[in-house]
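Marked as duplicate of an earlier ticket. Keeping the data here for the record.
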Amino acid sequence: MKHKEKFIKKGVGIGKRADTRPATVYAKEESAITLIALVITIIVLLILAGVTIAMVVGDNGILTRARQAKSETETAEFVEKVQVAAVGSLNTDGRVDLDNLKSELEKIDIETDAEEFPVIVEKNDEKLFIYDDGEVVKDSSNEYIKNGLMVAYDGINNTGNGHNDTATVWKDLSGNGNDGTLKGEPTWQNDCLKFNGTDSWVDIGKMNYENVTLEAVVMNSNEIKDIEVDYMCNFEGGGYGFLYNSLGNHIKNTFLIYIGNEYKFIQSNDDIVANKIYCLSGNYNGNELKLFENGQRYFLNMSGNVQSPAHNVDFVLGGNVSASNVVAGDWFERKYVCS
């Protein structure tokens, strides 16, 4: 019996329990691992789902890029059709016939009642200017050009984080750190910087480049003077800038630049008037000198190297480096692009 009991305890009692308990424990371990794996699987699936959704509808997702591609394609087609219409309206003298242009535009479902150039046509958010020589130019007045942009100031966002009426520095929005320092007593309005015409200007440092584009939105609030008045420049035996001056009995907005050994300039056709906003853009690319005034384009074929100003003087808004010829008026925004 003792041997039997020993056998039972070892062979049946303990042995059987040993056979069943590990089975039970094994089943529990298998269940636990399965639940953990399930939770991990669900988490992975949720992550994949989030990634997939982001890839499809995110800012850089498939659908967003598809919509952008579609919009860009439609814009390109629109621009191309307008360019074809402009070229198809050219006379033998190389100028666009306005009536022919209207007829060509009607063929692509664009109507205009324009009576002079530039003719402005729009589709969705795209605005185009058609000039009398057949050139078609996109409107970029609401955009900051980033390629080659050296300086960008905004009369509303004068700090980079909104508007401050007491700011003594005009924040450069180009990201290049070319902040403008207010001199004298210019005063901030809600959407612009106002110069007093005597001793106020903004110093923005050294700005000497070969190929250059200047843009400004300005208004002369005082009586127009029959003298040279500088909007923005680094004139001193070189340099470039915007100004207005008299030519005979006419006072016009002017883009002036020192090329070769002398100042060259291009002017608008119309005399300027007080309390009118002017959107100005001047460009020199080594082959052509251009001035845009409120969408009207003027250009001259020209070549030569731009000469930097003597003594490497600073570029100034509202006057010139000697603080003379100071403008009295409002500056809404200003951009400076070089290449």
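See parent ticket for discussion. The radius of gyration is 35 Å.
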